[in-house]
Amino acid sequence: MKLSRNVILSLEILTAHKLRTVLSMIGIVVGVGAVILMVSAGRGAEKQILDRIQDMGTNLVIVSAGRTFIIAGRQRQMDTVRTLLVTDAQAIAKECSSVALTTPAVSKKLPLRWEDQDAITNVVGMRAEGLQVRNFSIAAGRAFDAEESRAAKRVAIVGPTAAVNLFGATDPVGQQIRINKVPFEVIGVTVTKGMDVNGLDQDDLIIVPLETAMRRLLNLDYVHTVYAQALSSTAMGKAEQEIAELLRQRHRLDDKPDDFTIQNQATLLATERETTGSMTLLIGSVAGISLLVGGVGILAVMLMSVRERTEEIGLRRALGALRRDIRNQFLFESGLLAGMGGLVGVTSGVGTAIAVSALGYWPMVISWPAAAVAFAFSVAVGMFFGLYPAVRAARLEPIESLRAE
Amino acid sequence: MIQLEKIEKTYTAGTVQTPVLKGISFSIHAGEYVAIMGASGTGKSTLMHILGCLDKPTGGRYRLDDIDMVNLDDEALSHLRNGKIGFVFQQFHLLDRATALRNVMLPLIYAKEYPADAHQRAEKALTAVGLAERMSYKPNQLSGGQQQRVAIARALITDPAILLADEPTGNLDSKSGTEVMAIFQRLHRDGRTIILVTHDRNVADHARRVIVLKDGQVAEDRLVAQPRDAESELAAVVDEEVRP
Question: Model-level pTM?
Fold first, then answer.
């Protein structure tokens, strides 16, 4: 028998038992839907983290002064180290062949005042090219240039959050403010970046020229951080190595441990991936188990179906059906049942993912390969659990089956 | 067409052996219309199952269309049933979820070659039993007589060597039963080989030859001198209905 000859009949029989067909499909629908939803959520979270990490700057290598430790999942700096200098940043840009640009940077939380409004925010001092290295774009007004930086001009670029906190609805550009009592002119506003990897608001800051920050605000002769941009994403490892060697040499460390910490997006990404990856795996396996439970539902329905259709099986055998024809027919039907459930599951899973994403509850990235795998798996589950009922159907003797009423 | 030689069938349950058929021999030639008669418990159903290749004898030889079925395996018997035998059952055995047309086409699903004109053949078979208007009806929308006619169309669609009917009128009222008998007589006139299994003398008397079973053996094998004519019986019934 070619199965195709029997397809219409199988469909007629399945659609005739609507309620039962729907009930047996529910487990598969939920299983497949959940798998797709979970994978989409996991990938969405991963993409969000990836975006945030990339927001920090393209091909960014971060050199921090002093050794840092991971404590309770957060990065902490243990002590104040005064050895990282502006000249180190210049040397890195000049001597490390894998590095395109660098900017030294300092930062500190300082009080702000505009008219009678007060706020406290993170003041970051960096060079003009730092805006490029750190991926800051100007939404309104303008950026400062290298000349203003060198001359330690009192100009500031505010982040959107800091701007709202201080100015409310007023346009910040052109306003006079005081940072730690030093007067500044606001010349620009940055484009919104959102939260960083640790959930901190990257828009709650004020950027001023490095020299201004070091001389007029903080009175420092060393920097906290050097941001370096590697030539390409593949050159990041090399850049890190070159920077480490150069700094050890310049700081004359010999056999002493590093007085700096180098991080890049790849290492940040790997840590984050690990967390979200194991989460996705966990929830994914729960969803997979519900798929298996759906398979048990199919097993029950197919056993019931074989029992109820004993007479039909006897008739088909009398009319010339081989045992394997009967087996294949029931296998096909359970596969079809699971496949329909899988299709509904894919549709509802993808639909829910799109809806959740559109409503802004959670970022979702729909994975079509995962959807295809979930669908194929549902058919496989249907066939697997359909095998036993199908074999039982094929074992029935035609005479006894025909007598069954 | 059919040769039975000393067919025996013994059922074994544990150590208890129950012989049901005790050496049955007869031949049926192409184009014959034979009724196999007997009270219940005479081995009539067992014989029918063997004739229909649904069961194998425990002794003797059965040749159908020059094929010795005793040595065939399960798969070969299935092919034999599909190609050589058309079944008509007492309980009709139609798939109640499928239309009359799909029911009639069912045996073709299991044919070695699926005919390209399967649809037309099924339509022709249904037209031949007077159901041209009811092809897309499901069994529960048809009367008992109509359902049995669908079953006859299904039995004939593979153009089998023999038509094997097991109490075909058992579940029908007398008028529908007579209609079915009329169809059988027409098929017989067209040269079809028919074996009719029944306990009812009135039904058996429509055939040309009657084989009576008794206690697992052939008790009587005779030609019917004057077979009853279903057509004229039907006409009489109709007359009665017309007359006040």
Answer: 0.72
